[in-house]
Amino acid sequence: MVDFGRPYYTPMDQEYHASFEHTGRNEVEQPIFPISMVGQTVPEIDPTGRTRNIIEGVEAAFKAGAGNIQLVMQVPGQVQPIGGGPKAYGEEVRQAIREIQRASGGKITGVELPTQINNLSGFTPQGFNEEQRRIALAEVRDAIKFEGDIAGGGGVHVVSFEFPRNFSDASWKEKEGKLFTQREEPVHLLVNKDTGQISSIDERQTYYFYRDPKTFEDISPDKKPEKWVWDDFKRLAEKEGKPPELLLLRQQMETDFKKLRGEEGWYSAQLNEVQRGLEQFKGRPDAELSKEEDDMKKYYRSRETSATLGLQAIKEQEERLKEMQQKFVPVAQHGLQKSAGSYAEAGIWAMQESEKNQFVQRGKGSINVGPELGWPTYYGSHPQEFVELIRNARQEMARKLTDKSSSYYDSSLSEREAEQLAKQHIKGELDTSHLGMWLQNFKPELSWDKRVSEFKKWYKDQIEYIAKVNKEEDIISQIQIVDSASGAHGHLPPGEGILGKDIYEYMKILKEKGGYKGEFTSEGHEEEKFGQGRILTKAWETLGSPISSSYLYGRPAPEFRDIRHAYAQIAYGTTGIFQSYVPSNDFTLWSNVPFE
Fold this sequence. Notes:
By secondary structure, the chain is α/β, with parallel strands linked by helices. The chain has three domains: 1-31 and 546-596, no CATH class; 36-176 and 333-540, Divalent-metal-dependent TIM barrel enzymes (TIM Barrel); 187-330, no CATH class. Helix content is 43%, strand content 11%. It has helices at residues 54-63, 91-104, 130-151, 173-176, 230-240, 244-279, 291-327, 331-356, 358-363, 383-402, 415-425, 432-436, 448-473, 502-512, 534-543, 560-568, and strands at 38-43, 68-72, 107-112, 123-124, 127-128, 154-159, 187-192, 198-202, 207-209, 226-228, 328-330, 367-372, 428-431, 476-481, 520-522. Strand 14 (476-481), helix 14 (502-512) and strand 15 (520-522) form a beta-alpha-beta unit. The chain starts with 37 loop residues before the first strand and ends in a 28-residue tail after the last helix.
C-alpha cells in the first residue's frame, strides 16, 4: 500500500486508539476559540432558498454543531403587517425556541434587526423624520422583549447608518484622512432641528459677497462684491468658533436680506403712491367708473399687491435669518444627538425588561442594545465613531435616569449606579466584513496586492483600538466574523476573502488584549448554497477550533478538508484510489474484508 498521509487503521487495530499527532492551532490543549464559543447567524428567511421557518432554522443550526446562534430578522414587523419580525412569533413559537436552546445546550446570543431599520436618528433621504425614528424604536422594543423571551438575555443590534458624512468632516480625518479617497460629492449638510429639513452646501462653489474674505469686514455696496471660496469660510470658522457651512448659509441669507432691505424703501414708496392714487376712487361704485378709470383702479390694486408681497418677503427673510441662527445645525451634531438619545431610551427598556422578564430572571441574564458597526459612507462605521456613539448613548441613559425632569427619572439611583446600568445595557456589535469595506476607499493608487497588504495593517490598528477601549469600557457584546472577496459588502465564510486567516489574529487581539468574553458568530451564509455547513466549518477552521471525534464518527482526521468533505458534502479532491494503486480482486479473505 502507498501511504498518502492517511491512517489506514480500523477498530480492530491497536494503533487505531493511539493518539494522532497533527500540526496546526488544534495542538493547544486549551484552545483560544473552543467550538462552544464559535457559532453562526440564523436568518429569518433561509438564504439557500429552502422553505424553512425560524424554529427549523434554529434547530438545524444547533444540530449542525453551532455553540451559539444569532437570529437575523429580515422583515420589519412595524412596517409589514404579515411576514416576520418579533411580532410574528407567538408564545408557543417562543417556547419551542427556548426548549430547543435548552435541549441542545447551545446559546442564542442576540437578535439583529432588519437592514431596513438602519439607524435610530430618524434619518431618511428626505431629512430627519421623527415618525421614522419612532418606528425604528418600536422595532427595537419588540426585539428586546423577543430576545428576553427566547434566550433569557442577549443583545439587540441595529446596523449603524446613522447619517451621511464626508470623510473630510470626520473626527478621525486628521490622522487617517490621507489614507482614504472620498467618492461622494464634497457636500456639507445642515438641518433645521425643528423640521428635520436638510440644506446642502457644496464646497466647490464660489460665492460673491459684499464682505472682505481676508479681513471679514463689510465693503461698500457701490463696489464690486468679493469672491469667497470654501477655505475662506474655514478661516472664518476658526475665528468665530462655528461650523463653516453654518457661516456660509448665514452669509447667503444675510446677503439676500440686505438686497431685500434695499428694496424695502422702494416698496414702501410704491405702496404710498398707490394708496394716494386709490383715494380718488374712494366711495365710488365700480359701476360708475368709466373703462379708463376702472383700468387705472385695477392697475393700482396690482401694484398694491406687489408692494405688500415685497414687504412681506422682507419680513419672512428676517424671520428665517433669526431662525437659521437658532435652529440650523450640522447634520452630524443633530444626528448624533438623536441617535444617542434613541439608544439611551432603548437601553432603559433593555434594563426594565431584564428586571421584569421571567425568563431573564430565571437565567440570571441581562439584555443589552446597541449599534452594529456600519458602512463607510455613514456615521457609525469607523471604530472611533462606533465608540463615540456608544459613549454618548451611555451618558444620555445615565442622565435620563438621574435627571428629575426626565420621564425615566429614578430617585433610588445614584449617578454611579446609573452609569453602571448604562454600561451594562448599551453595547455594540462588531462586524468584521463591515470594517473590511473601508478597503473600497483605501489608497486606490496602489496595486491590488500592495493595497490589501497595507490595508490589513490599518485594519489591525483599528482592532487594537477597539480592544483597548473594550478592555476599559466593555463596549462589545457580539462579534460577527465574516469575510468578503473585495471591499464590497459580502457574507463569505471566515477565511474565504480578503481578511483570510488574519481573522484569527484579529479575534485573538480582541479576546486576549481586549478582554472580550463573548461569542464569535459566523455570518458567512453566502456559500451555504454550495454545501450546507460551511458557515460553521470554515469558522472553526479559521479560528483553529479543535473538532471532537464525534464529527468524524470515531476517527481522528489529519486534515480539515476531510471534515468539510464528510460534513458539508463538498469534494476538495478525491479520497479514492486509482490505476495501479487499486488492490487486486484476484485474492479475497474468507471473511470478504477488503485488504485496505
